[in-house]
Amino acid sequence: MVPTTPQPRSKTAPGTPAISIVIPTRAQRAADGSASVVVACVTSIVKQSTYRDFEIIVVHDAGAEPDVLAALKKIAGASLSLVRFDGPFNFSRKMNHGVIQARGNFILSMNDDVEIISPDWIEQLRETIEPADVAMVGAMLYFANGTIQHAGHAHVGGLPTHIGIGEPRGSAGPDGDYLDVRERVGVTAACALIRRDAFERVGGFCELLPGNYNDVDLSLKLRSLGYRILWTPRAELYHFESVSRSPEISGYELNFLHDRWGSTLDVIDVSNAVVESRR
User: Fold this and answer.
1) Closest CA to 152 of 166, 162, 167
2) Domain assignment of residue 7, yes or no
3) How far, in Å, CA of 96 to CA of 273, rounded?
4) Where in this chain does the record put each Glycosyltransferase 2-like domain (predicted)?
5) Which domain holds residue 30?
6) What is the tens place of the pLDDT at every residue in 95-115?
7) CA-to-CA dists, residue 154 to 164, 168, 241, angstroms
8) What is the model's pTM?
9) What is the CATH number of the domain that holds 89?
10) Are 64 and 26 in contact (CB under 8 A)?
11) Closest CA to 235 of 48, 29, 17
């Protein structure tokens, strides 16, 4: 849970960033000695993003390598905050810890193994989250080979999954589903813009889900309070999924999700209506 009392944030205070990008990471080089994925991630944000009103909060393990932290400071400069995290891997706890340090009205959750494709990705997310009833917006993510990794969440037979997975980049999808802003039952926290007040209202990420389904749970908590969740294909990123950690899914996590949400997970998808089309 986020141990703070939410305060009104109708306007970002002068001198504070509008968006706080929170990136949990080990901040270590790969096992083969190659460059750290978080360095590549932050480099792509700083060098490619046309939107500049942000801060980057890197929540790193106690065992972070000094040269990795130094590289991050050199790349991001004054926009970077390094936050140490002690304890075993827990994505949810690291995200919540980062949000406590954040100053922005919007939280942009990011995995450390993503890289930017579209320079205006933040503008697209900001535009899509503009309606007051929209709490979270997700992006179009691709595997390294260019196929779709994420076009929103769906629940199939009670099992959360990604829409569009494995489809070629540029695919229209059923009824043009991959071409338009759509309402979804949820989106991945690998890249999601979230209203801070809504995030705090639902208690942030569930720390009992350390590795998987924490974004599914967050999405369902937000929707249970009447918020909408949208996905846009106009913010494009690569997601080198599970490069930095084990991709294994704990049976406990799936059981926990089913115990909490029950029949809600039997819903295949939300209305799937086109929210906006520019075709």
Assistant:
1) 162
2) no
3) 32
4) 20-202
5) 19-276
6) 999 999 999 999 999 999 999
7) 10, 19, 18
8) 0.89
9) 3.90.550.10
10) yes
11) 48
